[in-house]
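Batch manifest line 480
LIGAND: pyridoxal-5'-phosphate
JOB: complex structure
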Amino acid sequence: MSRWTLTLEPEGSGPLFLRIARGVMRDIRRGRLKPGQQLPGSRPWAQELGLNRNTVLAAVAELEAQGWVTTSPTRGTFVSQALPEEVATAGGKGLAPLGVVLPPEPEFLQSRPFTLPPEVLHFSAGTPDPRLVPVELIARTWRRVVRRGGRRLLEYGEPGGHPALRRALAQMVSEVRGVPASAQQLVVTRGSQMALDLLARAVLRPGEAVAVEELGYRPAWEALRLAGAQLVPVPVDADGLQVDALERLAKRRKLRAVYVTPHHQFPTTVTMAAGRRLQLLALAKRYGLLVIEDDYDHEFHYEGRPVLPLASADDAGVVASIGTLSKVLAPGLRLGFVVAPTALADRLVRLRAVMDRQGDHPMEATVAELLEEGELQRHVRKMRGVYRTRRDFLVRRLEAKLGEVLSWKVPSGGISVWAQVKKPIDLQRWLGKALVRGVSVHPGARYTFEGREPGALRLVFARFNEAELGRAVDLLAGAL
Ligand SMILES: Cc1ncc(COP(=O)(O)O)c(C=O)c1O
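JOB STATUS: finished
ARTIFACT:
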């Protein structure tokens, strides 16, 4: 067996244990590590890397969870003989290895989403509880709609979205969110992610600057970067984006756009103060910059009425507002939308036609029917009650088990709690141990530029029932 050593990529982002795991995957893909080859024991390996053993254990747990290695308590850790499909089919009997040189991959593409095994409680996954998705209702409605719509639904259709869904969403946005959009000003996308990609392509030339919130939503940053944006972080505080800081920036350099999450700032959950909203709109108008508003969880607000989106007060045509059905219905449907002034909406439709031709019209027509019949609204009302109860439960449990260590402000909406770590604690070590025990939590570093750790955790309460929330908090507390 050849002596193998891991080289960590110096520029890597994210928690250290994931960087180690990614390094091992990379070496398996490149053939530096062969199926069946033994990895060093955690103790000597940790020593060799100059790291804490728990970090190494967390990396091994992650690799095992994804099927890259197998471990036996007595024999050690080995590169799996049955590798994940992507590797197992990459050589050998499958296609020949790539025979052309690819340009270097942008560093941000490395942060691919990880799948964790079902036995790990993924406490930071921002998704609804999959068990509460109204599967039967969706299946029944789809069947009815496809039967009725017949072959027309299965033809090529409008790239901007199925007309019934555009109409139904435009009506919802206008009645519930106070944004008086016509169906033509609403473009259906595959989730917010495509909306961001389309907007970035529509408004940016490579190298242009876009301001983003820090802390913030990395998938949005990556979509913007893919279109060549130079991102400029702007700090957030208890009132949301610091618009004064944005203004100072706008005076110094040309900004093309700003990406914001004003309803519940991601990940800190704070709502942007009214004064700041007005200030932001005025600033956008003055400097000619597009406000990309990500209104991803408008429906989940528990105290009083939800604050209306910036787009509802936009009299200058400077806001493009993004919505998604990933939280209110299910992320796998890949349904989202953008509301934008006509000239921009039209451009988005033309871009979409090139990239993706059109969405899944049978499913779009199904969701239109769920909206027209009030089913989706009923589901949202139900989920709002469930999530509010779960939020309150989580907060009580945190108080009981981690009140000495964490502090938080109970969020008025959304699906997560942003908890600050009050004491000097080695967060990486703590979360590494927690992962080994079966609960995965993202540290604040995941939401900053350059991986700076703000000393905070994102804890999502939507996905788990009370028993699971209790167990997740207990595991986290036990790992301290
Ligand atoms: C800030 C933010 N925007 C958008 C989304 C939804 O993304 P998509 O619609 O692409 O599933 C999420 C979900 O995690 C989010 O947290």
